[in-house]
């Protein structure tokens, strides 16, 4: 038996790092991509390449906050009546001047005529259209949205590095920006390795499994703002892996591989990446996700090689790949939000290894409680979809009790 197994090259030396050390080393591989101009309406999820200033005051003119009557507040008396001199709807572009002793009917969002200092809501009148009877009074300034009270022309309304959410897209439109300068989206290629892998939809022979890391990582990369340009599978064969990597030259800003970075006889990514001495095999003091490798394509494009176990690749993406993608995207904040949660149940860990445990946050009591899901095995995919957080157990902690506060990485998507 022994002589049918490939002898394999001697294992290359491993660098041993903490999670934070490796995350910092990976983050240092990238800089924000060059700026491109895109239509503002399509800029959601992109990071601004420069500050954005408003081209105008918001509101651009004094506008009515209510349906009612533009008035001179000093002319109002309960029980009095005033002539309705004009009718101003939203979209009325005339320059209206309010005569003394009269009012103008105005609708919400209509310009307030010159001379008026307040809007009397229709509810405080009889609603008259020629003469209006006054049933209440308002103070100067009531229900008028003043020109520029929201935003002044020239104000910086969004900052370089902001990732644009729906509110920002609305603000760009309101401040007159049809186009906006953002960083290019990182192009990501995913390469799954493993001779056992079969695409979903095809029947499995004994010994085969469906390829799930590729779709999982592609989805995660897209959610992080990347443009996934390739999702490919390659068998456990060093020349095939090298050819698959070579085919990606010029196609991507980042290549992510899964599988084949451990100490097995068929750990082909390890051998393909390290063959020319350029890559680095890393043993990260964490679980899951211990074996990692970093290399580069011939054109210098970084290659991050993640372990193949689906949970390991999921967690590795979160802590190593996603921050780098966010940096390439130009985001100011590259890390996920962290929260403090109460642990739902006791847990045992292994001192000397940082643990990142899948969890669901239960908000029933008003403050988050972290309920572990899925068990400790790195192959346990069943509950992965139910995890919206990773409990972060420090390297030096071996035991935590129910109710203990823990730091969790919040996996829910946020704008910003
Ligand atoms: P490896 O890191 O290549 O030793 O793979 C570790 C485990 O993850 C093995 O059980 C593989 O079958 C499994 N695995 C590797 N790649 C994938 C993938 N793309 N999809 C699903 N499971 C995988
Ligand atoms: Mg494998």
TrEMBL record:
Keywords: Magnesium, Metal-binding, Molybdenum, Molybdenum cofactor biosynthesis, Transferase
SUPFAM superfamilies, sorted: MoeA C-terminal domain-like, MoeA N-terminal region -like, Molybdenum cofactor biosynthesis proteins
PANTHER family to which the protein is assigned, alphabetical: GEPHYRIN, MOLYBDOPTERIN BIOSYNTHESIS PROTEIN
Enzyme Commission (EC) number: 2.10.1.1
Name of the protein described by the UniProt record: Molybdopterin molybdenumtransferase
Cofactor(s) of this protein: Mg(2+)
Pathway stated in the Swiss-Prot or TrEMBL entry: Cofactor biosynthesis; molybdopterin biosynthesis
Enzyme class (EC, first level): transferase
Catalytic activity: adenylyl-molybdopterin + molybdate = Mo-molybdopterin + AMP + H(+)
Lineage, highest ranks first: Bacteria, Bacillati, Actinomycetota, Actinomycetes, Micrococcales
């Amino acid at each position: 038996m022994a002589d049918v197994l490939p002898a394999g090259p001697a294992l290359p030396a491993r660098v041993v790092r903490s999670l934070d050390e490796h995350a910092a080393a990976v983050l240092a591989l990238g800089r924000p991509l060059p700026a491109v101009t895109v239509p503002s309406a399509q800029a959601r999820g992109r990071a601004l390449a420069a500050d954005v200033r408003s081209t105008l005051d918001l509101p651009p003119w004094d506008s009515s906050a209510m349906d009612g009557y533009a008035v001179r507040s000093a002319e109002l008396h309960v029980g009095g009546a005033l002539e309705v001199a004009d009718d101003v709807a939203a979209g009325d572009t005339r320059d209206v001047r309010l005569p003394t002793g009269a009012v103008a009917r105005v609708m919400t969002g209509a310009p307030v005529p010159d001379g008026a200092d307040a809007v009397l809501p229709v509810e405080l009148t009889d609603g008259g259209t020629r003469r209006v009877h006054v049933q209440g009074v308002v103070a100067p300034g009531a229900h008028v949205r003043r020109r520029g009270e929201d935003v002044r022309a020239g104000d910086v309304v969004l900052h370089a590095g902001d990732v644009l959410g729906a509110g920002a897209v609305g603000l760009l439109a309101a401040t007159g920006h049809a186009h906006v300068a953002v960083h290019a989206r990182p192009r990501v290629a995913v390469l799954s390795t493993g001779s056992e892998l079969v695409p979903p939809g095809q029947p499995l022979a004994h010994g085969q499994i469906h390829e799930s890391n590729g779709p999982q990582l592609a989805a995660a990369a897209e959610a992080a703002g990347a443009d996934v340009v390739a999702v490919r599978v390659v068998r456990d064969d060093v020349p095939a892996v090298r050819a698959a990597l070579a085919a990606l030259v010029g196609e991507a800003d980042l290549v992510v591989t899964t599988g084949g970075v451990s100490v097995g006889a068929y750990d082909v990514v390890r051998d393909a990446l390290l063959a020319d001495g350029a890559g680095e095999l890393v043993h990260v003091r964490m679980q899951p996700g211990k074996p990692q490798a970093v290399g580069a394509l011939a054109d210098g494009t970084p290659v991050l090689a993640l372990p193949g176990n689906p949970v390991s690749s999921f967690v590795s993406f979160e802590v190593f790949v996603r921050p780098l993608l966010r940096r390439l995207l130009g985001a100011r904040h590259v890390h996920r939000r962290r929260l403090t949660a109460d642990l739902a149940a006791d847990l045992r860990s292994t001192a000397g290894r940082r643990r990142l445990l899948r969890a669901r946050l239960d908000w029933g009591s008003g403050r988050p409680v972290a309920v572990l899901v899925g068990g400790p095995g790195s192959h346990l995919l069943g509950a992965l979809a139910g995890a919206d957080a990773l409990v972060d157990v420090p390297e030096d902690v071996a035991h935590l009790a129910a109710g203990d506060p823990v730091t969790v990485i919040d996996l829910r998507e946020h704008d910003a």
